[in-house]
Design brief:
The chain has 150 residues and is an alpha/beta fold. It is 17% helix and 29% strand. The model has no long low-confidence stretch (mean pLDDT 88).
Length: 150
């Protein structure tokens, strides 16, 4: 059997999980769970490979409605190379969440009422609207929506 030098389109089915290192686990759990409204995995839902870290308070797991898991790993020594979050310090640009266009303005108000540091936006583009803001560790996050249907 000959092995292909590339994966065929459709072989990778979806993003399984995203792992983020965080300095302050409580602040990050509040941000992803309470502010952004993601459901935190509990008990038997926590992957077996992470149970020990979870029980020690060194990991937390959140799931989006489409099933993507966001793993948080506690790294108390974590420091960005520069304290100014406007200076890019990772190879990842940002994490983007999709929202119904009718709920976009309410999401912006939630960010503002929680004094979340806004990088820029809301912005309107032909592809929809977006707002960019920082998580507790300075990682850029976006909430975006498609254009409203007429």
């Amino acid at each position: 059997m000959q092995i292909s030098s590339t994966l065929a389109i459709g072989m990778l089915r979806r993003v399984h999980h995203i792992a983020l290192n965080v300095k302050d686990m409580q602040a990050s759990r509040h941000f992803y769970g309470e502010v952004l409204g993601l459901r935190e995995l509990q008990g038997e839902e926590v992957p077996e490979t992470l149970k020990e870290l979870f029980e020690a308070g060194k990991a937390a797991n959140f799931v989006t409605p489409d099933g993507t898991v966001i793993d948080l790993f506690w790294r108390p020594e974590l420091q960005p190379p520069d304290p100014n979050p406007d200076k890019v310090f990772t190879r990842a640009g940002h994490l983007a969440f999709d929202i119904d266009p009718d709920l976009f303005d309410a999401a912006v108000e939630v960010l503002r009422s929680n004094q979340i540091a806004i990088d820029h936006g809301p912005v309107s583009r032909p592809t929809g609207r977006g707002i960019y803001f920082f998580d507790p560790d300075g990682f850029l996050v976006e909430i975006r929506c498609d254009p409203k249907a007429d």
